[in-house]
Amino acid sequence: MREIFKQEMQELATGLVTMADHVATAIEKADQSLRERDLQLAEEVIDADDRIDELERQIDDLGISLLARQQPVATDLRIVVSGLRLSATLERMGDLARHVAYVARGRYPEHALTGRMRDVVSEMGAQAVKVGQQVYELLKTHDLSLAAVVEAEDDVLDRLHRESFQVLLDEDESLTRQQVVDAVLLGRYLERFGDHGVSVARRISYLVTGDTANAVHVPMSQDQPGQTSERLG
């Protein structure tokens, strides 16, 4: 029974890494579809979101099954519960990538935005792509220094989000009403993507250290206890 339990815990970990890989790909393609007016890429992101949703269901079913059959305690319980929460967060990140792709598809063959606003949102998209890639690596490695980087990248997204509102208020901007709506929505989608990336980073930090007070903000050095002892898989 213990071997089966170990195998299922590994399956849980593998499923989360696979899910994060799909999310990273989704936000990269969504960003590219928006910048390059690529209808095919936008459609790929929208269609691929079903796979992310299916992975979440599989992880949730496995996690609930583990709780019911194995009744894990202590570290094992923390791992299973963290897995369930991480799958929900990753699913939301996939949804946000899909929303970006919806905007790109809806404005095709035109650019959704122009001028300074397009530049700011493009920067936000590039930062979101970084977060997606870092979340994927974080779930593979449980490297707390990378968790801190994820939070730092989110600070950049927050700054750019604030800048986007300043652009909207700029009297020299000549955005249409639809562009104003798109700018607000895209800024929100990308900013929330970063927020969910921070949620993943803090969950992994808690999983590794067992400490919620200083999660992410103060990464532990490599020689401190608890750095890599508790992992999803």
TrEMBL record:
Entries under InterPro entries matching the protein: PhoU, PhoU-like_sf, PhoU_dom
Keywords: Coiled coil, Cytoplasm, Phosphate transport, Transport
Main localization category: cytoplasm
Protease as UniProt keyword: no
Annotated PhoU domain residues: 17-102, 121-204
Subcellular location: Cytoplasm
A biological process term (GO) from this entry: phosphate ion transport
This protein's GO CC annotations: cytoplasm
Entry coiled-coil feature ranges: 38-65
Function: Plays a role in the regulation of phosphate uptake.
PANTHER family per the UniProt record, alphabetical: PHOSPHATE-SPECIFIC TRANSPORT SYSTEM ACCESSORY PROTEIN PHOU
Family affiliation: Belongs to the PhoU family.
Subunit structure, interactors included: Homodimer.
UniProt protein name: Phosphate-specific transport system accessory protein PhoU
